[in-house]
Design goal:
5 strands; mainly alpha; 2 domains; binds adenosine-5'-tetraphosphate; Rossmann fold; three-stranded parallel sheet; single chain; globular; two-stranded parallel sheet
Length: about 350
């Protein structure tokens, strides 16, 4: 792969007393888009150089909103292809699909008994996704953050690269870990299973949310997050869009009548302009201030053309490689099977410890 994501990342904060391990996941719920890429995947790729990484296609999460999904197998393979095409190395790191490692669901059950209803009632993602018809939302959608906590803590992960929208779920993960460590403190000490300064069993994972595009917004509405489930395909750039489609979507992207400002302060109250500038900065490995230094005072038409050229240059090779990989499902499946075996080798002893701590006989 010639393409190297350019991401300037601050050194992740060290979580003391335990292997520094990265975990993150993406739902196979449709076409991956630029938001998933800049908010998450670029960081997944960069962290490979410094951390042991576990990257998961979270298919159990994918059925929380819509449980009948004939396209699910294909979508699992597509997310896997996107991981590999972007530069994740499945030989050095772990890539697998969640449902193959049964300990995710087992640990989630324990966490369902630890997390409090009051905590889950505060989750804004549930409110957004359940919408007005809350009574009709699945129990799985409500318990989503508890399964997410299990995903992360099953590997005693210390760092979790995510977009801004997942910040609240990460805080809940830390609350669950803290309550587990406190409630079972005596057992953890008796069994000699404590780590770090607190002598708890689980580390408190640090979110990695940084850069100019931690929350990429819809191209049609600067107040809405770019999302796979937005009914308008023009709201997002998909990782497998071709050059013409990217150009067309960016040409039609909503803007305002003013020229671009020369300083970041001038983006206030102009969400669509801020979004496009943030996307450019993230793709170029630069900052909003530097982008405005180059394009400030100019019209959107010229800026959109430059953004199109940059997006096609950066995303084109990824989309092309994704197509090649998805044409070979047997290879993708072998990567996932091998990854699941290696994930289980980490997860199984941790789940056994949890059973011992809770008091389940095994
Ligand atoms: N718009 C975004 N900007 C920055 N980061 C984003 N992420 C998602 N949207 C944006 C990050 O991508 C990772 C994977 O997300 P996910 O697929 O697990 O779920 P999601 O956050 O619900 O993503 P979508 O696209 O909005 O999916 P749907 O429409 O199915 O709900 C996460 O790290 C997320 O922060």
């Amino acid at each position: 792969m010639s393409y190297e994501p350019q991401l300037e990342m601050a050194e992740p904060k060290l979580v003391p007393g335990i292997t520094q391990r990265v975990f993150s996941g993406i739902q196979p719920t449709g076409n991956l888009h630029l938001g998933n890429y800049l908010g998450a995947i670029v960081k997944f790729v960069a962290l490979q150089a410094t951390h042991e990484c576990v990257y998961c296609v979270v298919d159990e999460h994918a059925i929380t909103a819509q449980h009948v999904q004939p396209e699910l197998p294909q979508q699992i393979r597509e997310v896997t292809a996107a991981f590999l095409a972007a530069g994740i190395d499945p030989a050095k790191h772990i890539v697998f699909n969640q449902s193959r490692v049964h300990q995710h669901a087992e640990l989630a059950w324990v966490f369902n008994c630890i997390a409090r209803l009051g905590w889950l009632n505060r989750m804004t993602q549930f409110k957004d996704k359940a919408g007005k018809d809350r009574e009709n939302a699945s129990l799985g959608l409500y318990a989503y953050p508890s399964l997410m906590a299990a995903d992360i803590l099953l590997y005693r992960a210390t760092h979790v690269p995510v977009g801004e929208d997942q910040k609240q779920h990460l805080e809940l993960t830390r609350d669950i870990a803290t309550k587990f460590n406190n409630d079972f403190g005596g057992r953890i000490a008796d069994l000699g299973l404590g780590v770090g300064e607190t002598n708890g069993y689980f580390p408190l994972p640090e979110p990695i949310i940084q850069g100019p595009a931690t929350r990429v917004m819809s191209l049609r509405d600067g107040a809405k997050k770019m999302s796979k489930s937005d009914p308008s395909d023009y709201s997002r750039i998909n990782l497998n869009d071709d050059g013409d489609t990217i150009a067309q979507k960016l040409r039609k992207a909503k803007t305002d009548p003013e020229p671009l400002p020369s300083e970041e302060k001038g983006l206030e109250g102009r969400p669509e302009a801020e979004n496009l500038v943030g996307i450019y900065a993230a793709l170029a490995g630069s900052s909003k201030a530097a982008v405005l230094g180059d394009f400030g005072g100019g019209q959107f038409s010229a800026f959109k053309q430059a953004l199109t050229d940059l997006a096609v240059e950066k995303l084109g090779p990824i989309g092309k490689r994704m197509k090649e990989l998805t044409a070979d499902p047997a290879y993708i499946d072998s990567v996932l099977r091998d990854g699941a075996e290696r994930a289980t080798a980490i997860a199984a002893p941790i789940m056994n410890d949890v059973k011992d701590i809770v008091g389940f006989l095994r």
